[in-house]
């Protein structure tokens, strides 16, 4: 079977970086048509640089990287240096990337690529705020039927918020963009905090990355050493969630995830709950389901997959 065609939309971020490594280490299953970058965890100039760093670390400098939107659709950019550090990839010392960034804007690349592909043939994998994806859908509604599905990291239900009491970071940064995507009618698979908080980087799992002895394995361990300090202190947990790799792991082994097909609405008017993902988990409304909203995963299987694939780089 031919590899699944994907576009990865990202704002690296250490966990985004691990997700990119997982995708680039899986060419038999995933054909990465391009990496589109958005402002989120840190401003756009840094997220673009970080995407190039990761592609080079994976030994894939030929990967097409495109800079996209530098701010949300209608709000001031909120970033997360308090988690990821001032560069977004704080922790180990990273070499300056040398690979070029493509001249085209990320949104133009998404539109042009989808228009050139058959109906129902490309999967979009947003790992950050949904600004690039929403802008592309708004500017070119005809691309929607070329999208097989959108598998995204964002939102929360039982875990509520990680940037406000009610909202998860990616959705909170650009709730207007999220609303466009969730109302698009495109099949959605959502990896909320409810599932990603079960993908914890416990010490044995981090040790397994380091024990690979490869550049990529050691880098993943050192990234984890840095960013897990925030979540361990915040949640009192044994490790930090590896949020974004859940998206790529789902594409590779979907049966390790468990969820419900429910209605999910995005709060865009209340400052108190701005960006909240209102998931009808118990199906108490008559609103039609629009997303497969994940709630659990096989964490041991997840880390086994991640470690074995990163070992290939």
Morphology call: globular
In helices, the fraction of residues equals 25-40%
Residue runs with pLDDT of under 50 for 5 or more positions? none
Largest sheet: 8 strands, mixed
- Rg measurement, Å: 18 Å
Strand order of the largest sheet: 3-2-1-4-5-6-10-7
List how many beta strands DSSP finds. 10
What is the averaged pLDDT score?
Answer: 96
Distance between the termini: 22 Å
Strand content: 15-25%
- Spell out the helices and strands N to C: EHEHEHHEHEHHEHHHHEEEEH
- Helix tally? 12
Provide structural commentary.
- The chain has 313 residues and is an alpha/beta fold.
- It has twelve helices and ten strands.
- The protein has helices at 14-24, 44-57, 81-84, 106-116, 131-139, 169-173, 175-182, 193-196, 203-211, 215-235, 245-252, 299-310; strands spanning 4-10, 30-37, 65-67, 122-126, 147-153, 188-191, 257-262, 264-266, 277-279, 291-297.
- An eight-stranded mixed sheet has the order 3-2-1-4-5-6-10-7, with helices on both faces. A two-stranded antiparallel ribbon has the order 8-9.
- Strand 1 (4-10), helix 1 (14-24) and strand 2 form a beta-alpha-beta unit.
- Helix 5 (131-139) crosses helix 7 (175-182) and helix 9 packs antiparallel against helix 10.
- The longest helix has 21 residues, at 215-235.
- The protein is globular, with a radius of gyration of 18 Å.
- The two termini are 22 Å apart.
- The mean pLDDT is 96.
Based on the model shown, name its key terms.
alpha/beta; 313 residues; globular; 37% helix; two-stranded antiparallel sheet; 12 helices; 8-stranded mixed β-sheet
């Amino acid at each position: 079977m031919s590899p699944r065609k994907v576009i990865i939309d990202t704002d690296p971020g250490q966990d985004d970086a691990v997700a990119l490594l997982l995708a680039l280490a899986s060419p038999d299953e995933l054909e990465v048509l391009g990496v589109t970058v958005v402002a989120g965890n840190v401003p756009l100039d840094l997220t673009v640089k970080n995407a190039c760093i990761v592609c080079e670390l994976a030994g894939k400098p030929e990967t097409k990287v495109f800079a996209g939107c530098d701010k949300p659709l209608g709000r001031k950019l909120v970033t997360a240096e308090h988690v990821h550090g001032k560069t977004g990839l704080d922790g180990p010392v990273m070499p300056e990337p040398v690979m070029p960034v493509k001249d085209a804007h990320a949104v133009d690349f998404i539109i042009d690529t989808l228009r050139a592909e058959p109906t129902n043939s490309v999967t979009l994998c947003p790992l950050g705020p949904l600004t690039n994806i929403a802008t592309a859908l708004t500017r070119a509604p005809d691309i929607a039927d070329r999208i097989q599905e959108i598998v995204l990291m964002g939102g929360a239900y039982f875990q509520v918020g990680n940037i406000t009491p009610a909202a998860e970071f990616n959705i909170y940064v650009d709730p207007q963009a999220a609303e466009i995507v969730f109302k698009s009618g495109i099949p959605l698979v959502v990896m909320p905090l409810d599932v990603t908080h079960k993908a914890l980087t416990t010490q044995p799992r981090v040790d397994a990355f380091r024990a690979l002895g490869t550049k990529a394995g050691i880098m993943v361990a050192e990234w984890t050493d840095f960013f897990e300090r925030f979540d361990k202190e915040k949640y009192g947990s044994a490790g930090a969630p590896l949020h974004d790799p859940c998206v790529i792991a789902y594409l590779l082994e979907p049966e390790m995830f468990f969820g419900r097909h429910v209605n999910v609405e995005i709060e865009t008017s209340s400052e108190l709950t701005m960006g909240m993902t209102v998931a009808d988990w118990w199906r108490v409304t008559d609103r039609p389901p629009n997303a497969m909203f994940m709630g659990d995963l096989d964490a041991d299987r997840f880390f086994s997959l991640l470690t074995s694939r990163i070992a290939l780089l």
